[in-house]
Amino acid sequence: MIEDNPADALLVQEALEEHAVECELICITDGERAIEFIQSLDVQEVAGPDLVILDLNLPRKSGSDVLEQIRSSQKSARVPVIVLSSSDHQRDRKEAAKLGASLYIRKPSNLAAFLDLGRVFKEMIDRSRI
């Protein structure tokens, strides 16, 4: 998960637990570190992620820059990327789609709706593992 808001990261973790998703959750809090992480995967003998949950508004490098790096990566190019953003602007949605986002979700404003996102995360992870 690439998210600069610790509260949202905790909510994503709770949503995954709510839907019994068995996975390792790695939270990266800025775009520059996220790009470095993606680049490091290409040179290590490790598997890429099953899912990336990405915020567009990140410090140091934008979520769009991170998405471009993911799509140009050897190990991560085909990984599903869910953009989870507070923005509902059409231009942000179009830009994310153009860069290869698998899904764009506006961050829910209530806890129940946020926790229900665990179902979507689970489906995307299950599909990527096939």
Helical residues, percent:
40-55%
Q: What spatial order of strands do you see in the largest sheet?
A: 1-2-3
Number of H/I helices: 5
> Considering the protein shown, what is the CATH homologous superfamily?
Response regulator
CATH architecture call: 3-Layer(aba) Sandwich
- What is the total domain count? 1
- What class, by secondary structure content? mainly alpha
The termini sit apart by: 21 Å
What are the low-pLDDT stretches, counting only 5+ consecutive residues below 50?
none
What is the CATH topology?
Rossmann fold
Question: How much is the average pLDDT?
Answer: 91
The main pleated sheet reads as: 3 strands, parallel
The outline comes out as globular
Record field, number of beta strands: 3
Q: Strand fraction band?
A: 5-15%
CATH C-level: Alpha Beta
Q: What is the H/E order?
A: HHEHEHEH
- Specify Rg, calculated over alpha carbons: 14 Å
Please describe what this structure looks like:
The protein is mainly alpha-helical and 130 residues long. The protein is 49% helix and 9% strand. It has a single domain, classed as Response regulator (Rossmann fold, 3-Layer(aba) Sandwich), CATH 3.40.50. The chain has helices at 6-18, 31-43, 63-72, 90-99, 111-128, and strands spanning 52-54, 81-85, 103-106. Strands 1-2-3 form a 3-stranded parallel β-sheet, with helices on one face. The longest helix has 18 residues, at 111-128. The radius of gyration is 14 Å and the shape is globular. The model has no long low-confidence stretch (mean pLDDT 91).
